[in-house]
Amino acid sequence: MAEVVLFQLPISIFGSLELAVATLLERRQSVNRWFPAVRLKMDRVRPGEPDSLEASLMQLINDHHDKSLKLRAFTEQSKKDAVQSATRVSDLLVDAVNGGVQEAYAIEKKIEMEIRALAASIMRFGKQTDQWLAASHAINTAIKKGCTNAVSGFMCV
Fold first, then answer.
1. CA-atom Rg of the chain in angstroms
2. Dihedral Cα 28, 31, 36, 42, nearest 10 deg
3. Which pLDDT value is given to residue 5?
4. How far apart are CA 53 and CA 43, in angstroms?
């Protein structure tokens, strides 16, 4: 796109379209005051002709509008890209956190199974211990009875 030049100064140095138009009008009035011959030439230019002020202003407005549309499209695309990037990052973070949670859950389940197995073993060993205690108590009692009988005449072995 060609840049419109006002008296050999590009629009970009003015900063805004309004300032460029105001400067153009101000310079035209200044030229009309100081150089009447140029004014007569400018008066001969008809609106709609390529060299007219109106054509220059329309070109400025059209260029400004085109740049605004391009900037808006660029902004929208940048916004969409940013949203997609943020979504991707959040998905990756969720996956990373969930991966750790899943691993911790699996380990917790294994530990619970081992605890249950140990509890069952403890119960089984507790019952066996009780049985051994009962058996040893019975043997002890039998030995004591045998020794009491030994006092009455039998010998305790």
1. 51
2. -40
3. 47
4. 10
Scanning the chain, the segments in alpha helix (DSSP H) are 17-34, 36-44, 53-151
What is the distance between the alpha carbons of residues 152 and 157, in angstroms, rounded to a whole number?
Answer: 14
Report if residue 127 sits inside a domain.
no
34-93 per-position pLDDT tens digit: 555 545 455 554 555 656 777 788 888 889 999 999 999 999 999 999 999 999 999 999
Please indicate, yes or no, if residue 76 is contained in any of the structural domains.
yes
pLDDT in tens, 49-63: 656 777 788 888 889
CA distance 64 to 11: 10
Integer Cα distance of 53 and 26 in angstroms? 12
Domain carrying residue 18: 5-82
Report the number of distinct structural domains present in the chain: 1
* Cα–Cα separations (whole angstroms), residue 11 to 16, 44, 47, 58: 8, 26, 22, 14
115-124 confidence digits (pLDDT tens): 999 999 999 9
9 located within any domain: yes
**147 lies in some domain:** no
Name the residue among 84, 48, 62, 78 with its Cα closest to residue 17. 62
pLDDT value for 2 = 44
